[in-house]
Amino acid sequence: MTDHKAKVLEAMAALGLGSRPQSMINGDLVDGCGEDVTLVDPFTEETLMTYADADAPLAQQACDAARGAQSGWAKGISAAQRGQIMQDISRAVLAHAEPLAVIEAIVAGKPIRDCRIEVAKVAEMFAYYAGWTDKLHGEVIPVPSGHLNYTLREPLGVVFQITPWNAPIFTGGWQIAPAIATGNGVVIKPSELTPLTTVALVKIAQDAGLPPGLVNVLCGLGPTAGQAAIEHPAVRKVVFVGSPETGRRVAMAAAAALKPAVLELGGKSANIVFEDANLEQACLGAQAAIFSSAGQSCVAGSRLLVQKAVYATLIAMLSEGMNQITLGDPLDEGTEIGPIGNARQFTHVQGMIRQAQQEGATITSRTHLPTQGFFVPPTVLTDLTNAAPAAQSEIFGPVVAAIPFEDEADAIALANETQFGLAGAVWTTDAGRAHRMAEGVRAGTFWINSYKAIHVSSPFGGSLNSGFGRSSGTDALMEYTAAKSVWLDSAPTPRIAFGYVS
């Protein structure tokens, strides 16, 4: 047994899990009944464990359980009590932070120090939405007919959520917390490649007081367990985080069942540097934007747009700086970049780099790599146009296409010449220019002289191939509730005739 596998099993035992991934259905850990799924350590490239796909039967049970628990959660206890339970969950997550971080680091290949931060953010998500549970209310509308008209914000019922392999526990908390804060039941399917921390999160929540069955976890595949959950009559909305290709299939399946969806998809975000910027800060920001998390982030700054006067200088700084970044074992405290999360993505990233080179790109890569693991070196692509596939397609690895621009208008045009609309950033000392760029660039999130700042209280989402809907802040509360309009006729005699209000 490898050291990594032993540490995963030790952490699983500390969290009350078994020796393999199991679905969480109605409060119980349950083995799947479908084909085998194998988890591979992206650092050692060895098999960690194998489990059975949840398949359609468990998906049916999960949706039934969520429907059964949801009514009691929404109506059987007060909103304030729901908030208190969520505060208890927040504290419980922090109390189990280290085993959660260890599992996340090994299974997802993320540096342990990053995983600790993400676990803390999950605790913050539950605490933030706990404060909203008793503050969701409608409004009184002064309609001209003289009726008393008021609105209610009601939970949808059961929502089905699908989360990705690159940030399983972070996206799990990101979706679960607002859904239950608003009174919904949840069925969540993490990626089949990284299911463990989502199951652990829900078990911790149940041990802290969350009613069994309110949140159910399906460990399995999209075409089997996922499709069955989408089709279940209890599910009222589908939420998906992942690639545009899979997002289209999910949206089509939801539409076929006449169910709305929220899609949080990919990006090809423009990180724009003007000649008046502090180049040292901009270089550090560019490194963090694309190389952190090995580039496996939907908001990664994968297009670096640099004003021509400082283009050569900044690219030289970036190329030198990437050789100072520490790559290695995700469990090592000093590791800054881990491996690509799985073999399929590793092959995809390598293929995109080869294609760019064949199309004339100049490749500048880090020269030293670990001797094992799915590692792609931090890489800068130059001598490409904005129309090149490497500048238009989401690579989802530590690879940045660096493109020069002339002026503000040129930078905005280049930034918007893409089918994505998720994020962007600008580096400049000109405040007026900064705000003009923020207004001109098509993005759901835009940073000025920084990159990747994010918080649960702020709305997040995109447009076009980056998806639609918002999944944090108060906007998420609207996504997980529906407005009901109530009319009271206060006139001494009825004003209803022939089916309409007179």
Helix content: 40-55%
The overall pLDDT average reads 96
> How would the global form be characterised?
globular
* Main sheet attributes: strand count, strand direction, barrel closure: 7 strands, mixed
Q: Kindly, what is the distance between the CA atoms of the first and last residues, rounded to a whole number of angstroms?
A: 78 Å
Overview of this structure, please?
Helices cover 41% and strands 20% of the residues. By secondary structure, it is of the alpha/beta class. The radius of gyration is 24 Å and the shape is globular.
How is this structure best summarized?
The chain is built from 16 helices and 22 strands. It has helices at 3-14, 55-76, 79-95, 97-108, 112-130, 168-181, 196-207, 222-231, 244-256, 279-291, 308-321, 343-358, 389-392, 408-416, 431-440, 473-479, and strands at 23-25, 28-30, 36-40, 47-52, 140-141, 148-155, 158-162, 185-189, 215-217, 235-241, 261-264, 270-273, 303-307, 362-365, 379-382, 399-405, 423-427, 445-448, 467-468, 481-488, 496-497, 500-501. Helix 1 (3-14) runs antiparallel to helix 4 (97-108) and helix 3 (79-95) crosses helix 7 (196-207).
